[in-house]
Nicotinate-nucleotide--dimethylbenzimidazole phosphoribosyltransferase (Marinobacter halodurans), 352 residues
Amino acid sequence: MTLPVAWKMPLPLPDPACIEGARAQQNSLTKPPGSLGRLEEAAVALCGQQHRAVPSVDRVHIAVFAGDHGVCDEGVSAFPQAVTAQMIANFAGGGAAISVLARELGAALEVVNLGTVGNVPADLPGVIDASIAPATGNIAVQPAMTDVQVAAALTAGDRAAARAAEAGADLLIAGDMGIGNTTTAAAVACALLYEAPEALVGAGTGLAPEAIQHKATVVGRALNRHGENREPLAVLQSLGGFEIAAIAGAYLGAAARGIPVLVDGFIASAGALIAVRQQPTLRSWLHFGHRSAEQGHRRVLDALEAEPLLDLGMRLGEGSGAATAVTLLRSACALHNRMASFADAGVSDGKG
Ligand SMILES: O=C(O)c1ccc[n+]([C@@H]2O[C@H](COP(=O)([O-])O)[C@@H](O)[C@H]2O)c1
Ligand SMILES: Cc1cc2nc[nH]c2cc1C
């Protein structure tokens, strides 16, 4: 199996000189130092990532990765698997939440179909067919993916990052669509964080408390079957999903090409966790859009030492939380680039 080069090759680091210059710029602006909080930090980080004194997130590339999950056989979702394919058509038709948000942002939106049980019509606009199989294996009883399949899913993500680079994107957002994927994301996170299923399994699309308990039992079975190997690729192949692998591949591919990333919710963060465990340098390319209402997200964010921009009780996926946070990054850039300095505005900087 051939993994994308970004899985193993050393990733670049953001530029330290640009970071230092951006900090000096922030401290020269007409405000008490640090008073714009995380907006300052985001602008400074973007300068380092983009090798620019004038950061921008005007050109946003959103790739939504869709795939089905064999673990749905265990009755772990409030919705039928057919919804994954139906939603791909809805993304293409412009009626999904991420379709609306992408239009509002003037962002490029592509949907990568990694394999669904339901039928997806051919030639839907903006949908890329990268079908691997109708679904992953049921993780409660078998590995999610073969080694060839996990490599194909990682590569599909890397290709999306290559398209973002080709389009000159300032920022990459990876979204997810896959009925059952809060189960697989929880399994991945439990394995990497040595957590019990009860700590990370949540309601997903809207399970009742008894059904959440059943879902935790299913994750427990998957973890027992998987065993002790906590190597990122082994965990991903055994417990993940096509879209979680593609998200990990897209994040690594973006960093390898010098593109910052805005991470979405629980599933996207599970992809980030896998990728950061594989390549810790990736962390310095990540911004975090929001804290999802999915129970386990807080713990995964903590493990990534991430303080997200928003906490709106969203739990949709699709990249919708990250897309909603782009406006804040745009504000951060506008403030960094356009505020007056103490010297220019004739305001005392309090240093005498
Ligand atoms: O991103 C999140 O935090 C999030 C939290 C809960 C649900 N979702 C979305 O809902 C679907 C998975 O939910 P479920 O209950 O089928 O596992 C999948 O399409 C996700 O995009 C997404
Ligand atoms: C309708 C619907 C839309 C979604 N978008 C992401 N996950 C989803 C799950 C459902 C059920």
